[in-house]
Amino acid sequence: MQLEKRKITMRQCAYEALVNEGPYSLYKGLAQPLIGAVPINIITFTVNDYVKLFLSKHTEIQSPVTQTLYGGALAGLASLSIYVPLDLLKCRA
Q1: Half-sphere exposure (Cβ direction) of 55: Cα atoms closer than 13 Å
Q2: Distance CA 8, CA 11 (A)
Q3: What is the pTM of this model?
Q4: Alpha-carbon distance values, 20 to 4, 16, 36 (Å)
Q5: Per-residue pLDDT tens digits for 32-41
């Protein structure tokens, strides 16, 4: 398809993939991103909720904006500290 001179729309491309390779061709390669994204989102949302809960109960920070800021920052730090080394191992393998 890439070497053809004519313009190909998304509809034509999807039609050709379905006809030539079957409906499962649209989902090839989807498992790996899902396997990587699910644990990261679990870590992110769990840490975010725990940090906001901790800040509301054990500190004097009662502003929802401040709690969300701290929760998001620590959740990003936690998820990236796990994800980046694993992604580095995957890229080097």
Answers
A1: 19
A2: 8
A3: 0.67
A4: 17, 6, 29
A5: 888 878 889 9
Mean pLDDT (the chain, rounded)? 88
Looking at residue 50, its pLDDT comes to 96
Q: Shortest CA distance to 87 belongs to which of 44, 45, 49, 39? A: 39
**pLDDT, tens digit, 9 for 90 and up, residues 41-64:** 999 999 999 999 999 999 988 899
Query: Among 76, 49, 52, which residue's Cα sits nearest to residue 64?
Result: 52
Residue 2: Cβ-neighbour burial (10 angstroms; 0-12, 13-18, 19+)? exposed
Query: Cβ distance 51 to 45 under 8 Å?
Result: no
Report helix, strand or coil for 6: coil
